Amino acid sequence: MNSAPQTTRPTLISPVIAFAATLFISALLMFVLQPMFGKLLLPLLGGTPAVWNTCMVFYQTLLFCGYLYAHWLTARQGAQRQIQIHTALMIFSVFALPVALPDNPSPPTAGNPAWWLVWTLFLAIGLPFFVISTTAPLLQSWFSRCGHRSSGDPYYLYAASNAGSLLALLSYPFLIEPNIGLANQRLVWSGGYLLLCACILFCAAGYWRNQSEDQLEAPSIDETLTPPSRWQQLHWAALALVPSSLLLGLTQFISTDIAAVPLLWIVPLTLYLLSFILVFGSWAERIRPWMLAAQPAVLTVFIAYSFINPATLPYWLDLILHLIAFFLAVMVCHGELARSRPHPQFLTRFYLVMSFAGMLGGLFNTFVAPFLFDAVYEYPIMIVAALLLRPGLLNGRWPLQLLFPLLILVAGLAVYFSTEQLFDYLDLIGGALILLAGISYALRHSPLALGTLTAVLLLFTLGLHGMASNVLYQERTFFGVLSVRDTVIPDENQKPEKVRELYHGTTKHGAERLIPAQITTPLTYYSRPGPIGQVFAEFDAENPRWRIGAVGLGAGALACYAKEGQSWSFYEIDPLVVSVAQDPTWFHYLERCAKQAAMVVGDARLSLAKEADASFDLLIMDAFSSDAVPTHLLTREALQLYFSKLKDDGLLAFHITNRHLALKKVLADHVNQLHLAGLLQEFQPETDVPLVIATDWVVIAKHPERLAKLQQSRLGHWQKLPLSFGLQPWTDDFTHIIGIWK
């Protein structure tokens, strides 16, 4: 039996245009819904990575379920039943509009809220998201049976779907978020969903018109076609899983080890979606030879400089190398996936395997890798896996392909175990590894040899970096990679001095001098000459029984401003930070200065909401120095919460040092809109004191006279917050990172 009629009935709109537009709208809505609903959840559950990870698992699982439904529907039902069942599902899903949180949502106050979150997501967006997730495989299957001249290869419509995803990805932070509040976003999205349902029905009508009576009653199956083998389906899964894992691994790696830049995750995801558009487009075969040739060529430079000797490159060039290598890897994998696509009769099975493998890749990076590795090692692992998936893996005598990499491995291990003074030869070893990286290009036609040699190079490279670095402790959780390092700096007498530092990714979160006389001296952003030191110097003597809350613990340097009789509480989202800061093996601030300070683990806004009103004299907000700024702690509603917890003469201090964002604009607007008083100091140290660094702080009070003492202080240069023009106030309904980019 033919999979599609040979002729199609004339219509006012070309089936290609109708189906492509519907797929485009579907993908657009899906990629807008995810960040939009994430922002709806933010004030409710806080910005913990566990929340985002749970949301991503929910989305990927529901996407897989949608593909499974499309596969079942097209394989088991005739055209008439397919349209009837799917129409009923769409009608039922419309009752979930507009998408919103359930009435009076109340997350559990004790225990893990993951199941509550999954249930909330299902009630709020489950049905609409499920319907959208079915669109790509279902409509392509329908199109393959419409009798159009291009119905024999409907996979090019997948390019239209990914074009919609790409447009949504770029539009949300740059167009939608800065111009439309969350309430209106929900209404516009709901209108777009109704339009999508109408478009699906239009496509269904075209599908119906071009089916014979037999095809309307039973699924159209050609018994002469051989279904994909189990090996072929495993190959599809590998070609989909590796790029999915590589995407998440690269995103984590570049934000951890290269540059903590907000919204940097958009770039890898853009390249990932672009690869689908290219490989499923009509020009895929012309691009393929160039991609296959460029991947090992770029890999040579990529391995030699970005992994073996990254210090020789500026961070932006290192970043570009990683992005190019990533793009070539996913282009090759997705290119082979597109080339091995089956007959349209097995289209839904193809997409089902793809979605399942993509879900496994996400689950591996999100839940498995953080427990297996103390750094982002899944990224180099997937670089090797992508090389092994190049065409021709087992061509030729594969045992001979392994011979050279194994010889290098044995030689490297022999050097490691036979040389005691390995540090004396690091430059020589690095040069040898760079030479081997260059030689690897000669193996470009042997994927097994190329992948294995690359694995050996990365193994030695990562091992040498671990030996050469002064990392004393490193652990990875949902919140990222936390490390304790020793650094040597010159002291006041220009003599070498060892300093203990705490890092979260590439962002320093505290430091401690190990000289006994200086071991309790607050350093970096919290130094006594700096703005927060000036605040304590001016106000600390007023009341010896102050109650102080600090959001963000770091190494605990702020604790050394504590005095007897005061009550201190630290609010920290990452329990590992608390564990490290309290361990005298690493840092001594808490042990020596504020051993009785309360540690409250969890999202700060949720934790502060439980505190008694008008109970704090000083609140210190120190959570904004990294790339992942918790915007829900900077909204107007958040500021109102803080002042409800402060006494009438209480002070609110914000640490806003950030390499990329001008957070003072947001606070200046709040101060103006809420009729508060605020002072800013952009501190630059006047003397070359070790680890006293430039830092920016804002202090806010209800009444301007409360800050008069600070403004008149000779300790620093405090000034009124500059007026911020043209900035829309940040609320729980609206935040816009791009608008405050430096």
If you average the pLDDT, what whole number results?
Answer: 86
CATH homologous superfamily classification of the largest domain: Vaccinia Virus protein VP39
Would you identify the regions where 5 or more consecutive residues have pLDDT less than 50?
Answer: 1-8
CATH architecture of the largest domain: 3-Layer(aba) Sandwich
Q: What's the β-strand tally? A: 12
Strand content: 5-15%
Largest sheet: 8 strands, mixed
* Class by alpha and beta content: alpha/beta
Shape: flat
Number of helices: 23
Number of domains: 3
With strands numbered from the N-terminus, the spatial order across the biggest sheet is 7-6-5-8-9-11-10-12
| Rg, nearest Å | 29 Å
Give the class-level CATH name of the largest domain: Alpha Beta
Amino- and carboxy-terminal Cα gap: 63 Å
Helix residue percentage? 40-55%
Protein name: Spermidine synthase
Transmembrane segments: 12-31, 51-70, 82-101, 113-134, 155-175, 187-208, 234-254, 260-283, 290-308, 320-338, 350-373, 379-395, 402-419, 425-443, 448-468
Organism: Methylomonas koyamae
Keywords: Membrane, Polyamine biosynthesis, Transmembrane, Transmembrane helix
What's the SSE blueprint?
Blueprint lengths: L14 H31 L3 H28 L2 H16 L19 H31 L12 H23 L2 H28 L3 H5 L12 H29 L7 H14 L4 H25 L6 H25 L7 H26 L5 H11 L9 H21 L7 H14 L7 H22 L2 E7 L2 E11 L5 E9 L2 E7 L17 H9 L7 E5 L15 E6 L2 H8 L6 H5 L4 E4 L2 H6 L6 E6 L14 H10 E10 L7 H11 L3 E7 L11 E7 L6 H4 L7 E2 L22
Parallel strand pairs: 5-6, 5-8, 6-7, 8-9
Antiparallel strand pairs: 1-2, 2-3, 3-4, 9-11, 10-11, 10-12
Protein name: Spermidine synthase
Keywords: Membrane, Polyamine biosynthesis, Transmembrane, Transmembrane helix
InterPro entries: MFS_trans_sf, SAM-dependent_MTases_sf
